[in-house]
Design brief:
Beta-Lactamase; five-stranded mixed β-sheet; five-stranded antiparallel β-sheet; alpha+beta; Heat Shock Protein 90; 47% helix; elongated
């Protein structure tokens, strides 16, 4: 029995009409002349049209002409002729008295048993709110990046100010012990400022260790070495890159060990060199700080662990690494090594605790 509303529709068209009409998505079924055979009720609701009255009218005559787009006509014509297969097309759409909406049009030519009948199924999606949300997200991310950069700049300036105040205080105190502590605090703050600056300049997730250690050692050299003709710090690192969290710990370890070497390895402005090394193989890595100074104290009473040693050991534990101090001829070598075995042992120690 023929459909009373669409008497000329074939059985295939009648089935498709029922599917389109009941769809929750805005759909249009068009013939080869781009005339509407059926429109889903959701299409009518979305675009202020009577979905039943839209049937039998060319798509370009729907509404008040807002669908009369040359680009849309070219897209649908090419799809109907089989000369183009467009996944999706974005169209600016505006009904009188309303704001511009962004629509995504997806036409698909249907394969019918009757090859003479051309049918297009057109999906219309309103992505205006999604585009607005996407732009808002991009704006927020951009604002966040600017704000983070400003915070990093302020942190760097604050650290520089604190370091300057500490140095001025160190120069003004009469106690040698107080001067030493203030100078140590100054050097540590300057090294942390260098760490922060290097990380802030890194736009990637990982930090390249060679330039990172080089800049850190240059900062320590500038603030602690008086005669650069006698003492120097060199970096001998491979091309390793690590995550930001690990790079911070490694940077602080290097800072403490280099400061310690400069304070104790070269008494009386003795000449010497400090070498910072880093090598990795797979998950295993080794950080070392060597000097060619006077070596370790021979009396155990002179080897009481200080704040720097405590900091290094704590940082090494957090990296599941082991600290090893070795006397050389001349000098001292301190290494922090992470291996599969040391990580397993460290994990066992933590469980025991």
């Amino acid at each position: 029995m023929a459909d009373p509303v669409f008497p000329a529709l074939s059985i295939a068209d009648s089935l498709m009409l029922a599917v389109v009409a009941s769809s929750d998505a805005p759909l249009l079924l068009l013939d080869g002349d781009l005339t509407v055979i059926a429109a889903s009720r959701s299409f009518g609701r979305a675009f202020g049209l009577d979905s039943v009255a839209a049937s039998g009218r060319p798509i370009f005559e729907l509404g008040e002409g807002e669908w009369r787009s040359p680009k849309l006509r070219a897209l649908l014509t090419a799809t109907a002729s089989g000369h183009a297969s467009v996944d999706a097309y974005e169209l600016d759409w505006q009904m009188r008295g309303t704001a511009i909406r962004q629509l995504v049009i997806k036409p698909q030519k249907l394969d019918y048993a009757d090859t003479d009948a051309t049918r297009l199924l057109v999906t219309v999606s309103d992505v205006t709110d999604a585009r607005t949300a996407e732009k808002l997200k991009e704006d927020l991310l951009r604002d966040k990046a600017v704000l983070l950069q400003e915070i990093q700049h302020r942190v760097a300036n604050s650290l520089q100010i604190i370091a300057s105040v500490l140095m001025q205080s160190a120069r003004g105190v009469l106690s040698d012990e107080a001067r030493v502590h203030l100078t140590d605090a100054h050097n540590r703050i300057m090294s942390i400022a260098t760490v922060q600056k290097q990380l802030a300049q890194s736009h990637k997730g990982d930090v390249e260790l060679r330039p990172y250690f080089t800049q850190l050692c240059q900062s320590l050299s500038a603030s602690m070495i008086r005669d650069h003709g006698k003492q120097s710090i060199v970096v001998n690192s491979d091309e390793s890159s690590v995550g930001a969290d690990r790079s911070i710990s490694l940077g602080l370890i290097v800072t403490e060990l280099v400061i310690n070497a400069l304070k104790h390895a070269f008494p009386g402005e003795r000449a010497g060199k400090i070498t910072v090394g880093y090598l990795s193989k797979g998950a295993d890595w080794k950080l070392s700080v060597d000097d060619d100074g006077v070596g370790m104290p021979t009396e155990s009473s002179d080897a009481t662990p200080g704040l720097g040693t405590t900091i290094v050991e704590a940082l090494a534990r957090s990296l599941k690494a082991r600290v090893k101090v070795t006397g050389k001829a001349p000098g001292t070598s301190v290494s922090i090594a992470h291996t599969h075995l040391s990580a397993v042992v460290s994990s066992t120690d933590q469980q025991a605790i």
